[in-house]
């Protein structure tokens, strides 16, 4: 009986993976026929994906989808954003409800190998941290033994939290919520002592507090959280399109190509710039796109640095410095293979 159940279970998993691969096979054709990119976003995270009062989505993750839409459809506005909780996001992608997931999602071994999904790169290097009320007087996460912790279900933060407290011989009481908004509301209402999440998300959630100055993000970073867009396995062409659109934005920053000067760069004598903006070479054709795929993305959305500064940078409410997300040539980790 056990052997039979094992065989049946394996067959079901194989069937599910095969169905996902079959569904993924023609994503580019599907998007072109529809005339719109379906982008899985968060339920509302400032700086990453958040609708304003008019329903216009802003944020680093939202702009990543806009860049893909510009590269594929020639129009960065041809995106429909579909808000998803952390628990819903992977199922929505697997089922074909969305074409790409761009929702502060951490690239991990399990997610990359067992869900039928591919991570197309990293648009934000992050790490998990802790936020506390200043009045508690806590200066370090090592002072949190016995604390109650607000945490979002379906995220990597749950395992990271358990590992960190166990490693340091501390105990905690989890207070679990389904959405990030619920976690910050619980924190503000005093239902937990601390809130844990990726540090970028902590800064975003702090901005939602009535008085953000009363909360502080502790210095400890307890994990690696490389965040980036995700697609279904089984469609290498679509995987390459999303991946190379992100790479194009990073390369554009390195080469000094911006939304403001992109048109002038069409006249550039720099061979690397020429390949990037499509005045030479066949980079677009190799992706199944037009020659101006990267040019459209850069012109309409901006290079990676512009996206970062506009959405989460020092002059935004989040006030995040480039840090690890600076270009590799400026001490950061953002590095893209060349377009050649």
TrEMBL record:
SMART domains: PBPb. It comes from the Bacteria. The keyword Transport applies. InterPro entries: Bact_solute-bind_prot3, Solute-binding_3/MltF_N. CDD domains: PBP2_BztA. It holds the Pfam family SBP_bac_3. Residues 1-24 form the signal peptide. Keywords: Signal, Transport. Residues 36-265 form the Solute-binding protein family 3/N-terminal domain. GO terms for biological process: amino acid transport. Transmembrane segments: none annotated. PANTHER family: AMINO ACID ABC TRANSPORTER PERMEASE, AMINO-ACID ABC TRANSPORTER-BINDING PROTEIN YHDW-RELATED. Belongs to the bacterial solute-binding protein 3 family. This is Amino-acid transporter subunit periplasmic-binding component of ABC superfamily. It comes from Candidatus Terasakiella magnetica. The lineage of its organism: Bacteria, Pseudomonadati, Pseudomonadota, Alphaproteobacteria, Rhodospirillales.
């Amino acid at each position: 009986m056990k052997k039979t159940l094992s065989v049946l279970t394996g067959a079901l998993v194989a069937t599910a993976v095969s169905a996902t691969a079959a569904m993924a096979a023609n994503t580019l054709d599907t998007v072109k026929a529809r005339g719109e990119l379906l982008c899985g976003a968060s339920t509302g995270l400032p700086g990453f994906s958040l609708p304003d009062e008019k329903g216009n989505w802003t944020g680093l993750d939202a702009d990543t989808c806009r860049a893909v839409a510009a590269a594929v459809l020639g129009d960065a506005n041809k995106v429909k954003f579909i808000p998803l909780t952390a628990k819903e996001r992977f199922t929505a992608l697997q089922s074909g409800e969305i074409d790409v997931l761009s929702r502060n999602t951490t690239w991990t071994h399990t997610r990359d190998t067992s869900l039928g999904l591919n991570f197309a790169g990293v648009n934000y290097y992050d790490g998990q941290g802790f936020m506390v009320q200043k009045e508690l007087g806590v200066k370090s996460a090592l002072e949190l033994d016995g604390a109650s912790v607000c945490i979002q279900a379906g995220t990597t933060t749950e395992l990271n939290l358990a590992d960190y407290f166990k490693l340091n011989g501390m105990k905690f009481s989890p207070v679990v919520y389904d959405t990030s908004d619920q976690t910050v509301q619980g924190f503000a209402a005093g239902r937990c002592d601390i809130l844990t999440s990726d540090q970028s998300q902590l800064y975003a959630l702090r901005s939602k507090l009535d008085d953000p100055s009363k909360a502080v993000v502790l210095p400890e970073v307890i994990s690696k959280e490389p965040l980036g867009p995700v697609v279904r396995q089984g469609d290498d062409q679509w995987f390459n399109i999303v991946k190379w659109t992100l790479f194009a934005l990073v390369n554009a920053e390195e080469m000094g190509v911006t939304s403001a000067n992109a048109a002038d760069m069409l006249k550039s004598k720099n061979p690397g710039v020429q390949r990037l903006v499509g005045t030479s070479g066949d980079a677009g054709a190799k992706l199944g796109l037009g020659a101006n795929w990267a040019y459209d993305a850069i012109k309409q959305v901006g290079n990676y640095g512009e996206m970062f500064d506009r959405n989460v940078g020092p002059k935004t409410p989040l006030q995040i410095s480039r840090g690890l997300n600076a270009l590799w040539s400026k001490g950061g980790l953002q590095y893209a293979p060349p377009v050649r």
